[in-house]
Specification:
about 220 residues; 10 helices; globular
């Protein structure tokens, strides 16, 4: 696996050590590992930018951080201590500011190649068995119900709408099932399609059990 400067890893591990929303260090490590895999297909990508963005992509997430300004200052200092150039830091900042699903609800941001790789990796970790676990984990973190048949999934959302509490099962329709078509790289698209198929089977089974559709 490509190395990320230890000063960046240490900063992120300290910041996210107590996360209980599914955006913890384990999530970040998986995203970095997925980036490492995807990078093998794109030797022209700047690995330092990609891996640094992967490790820090959730550090300034406004749903996780109450006061962003001091954390941003610490992060910029950490980038400099890691030996990243001003151009690399600017590229990383552009990626982390624009890769999230909610950031692209109003308009679609065209990311650099490095940003596309990080975005794909982050979205892949929202899919499959781990994606199911993370969805319910975050739902419990926010106090969202698992499912409410009387609340239909939203078809259009602003960022403010997206931040509103919604049943976890609705999140599959509002975001997760859409991610396959939003992947940037064909390698990620293939993985996403496989994971989404698994999730669709899960949701179908979940609803069947909820409504007692099985024959006894």
């Amino acid at each position: 696996m490509l190395m990320t400067p230890k000063v960046i890893q240490a900063f992120v591990e300290a910041r996210m050590a107590t996360d209980h929303s599914g955006h913890d260090v384990a999530h970040i490590q998986r995203v970095a590992q997925l980036c490492d895999v995807l990078l093998t297909n794109y030797p022209e990508a700047d690995a330092a930018i990609t891996m640094s963005a992967a490790w820090t992509h959730d550090i300034l997430d406004d749903k996780l951080v109450a006061d962003i300004a001091p954390v941003r200052r610490q992060l910029m200092t950490t980038y400099a201590e890691a030996g990243l150039t001003a151009d690399q830091i600017a590229a990383i900042t552009a990626i982390t500011a624009h890769l999230s699903f909610s950031a692209n609800l109003k308009q679609h941001y065209q990311l650099s190649l490095e940003g596309q790789i990080v975005q794909d990796a982050d979205r892949l970790d929202a899919l499959g068995a781990i994606g199911i676990g993370r969805a319910f984990y975050y739902g419990a973190h926010t106090g969202a119900p698992m499912y409410d048949p009387d609340i239909a999934p939203r078809t259009t959302m602003t960022k403010a709408d997206y931040r509103q509490k919604s049943p976890v099962i609705n999140h599959f329709y509002e975001k997760l099932f859409k991610l396959g078509d939003l992947m940037n790289t064909p390698e990620a698209k293939k993985i996403a399609d496989e994971r989404i198929t698994f999730m669709q089977t899960f949701v179908s089974q979940f609803k069947s059990e909820w409504h007692l559709d099985n024959n006894f």
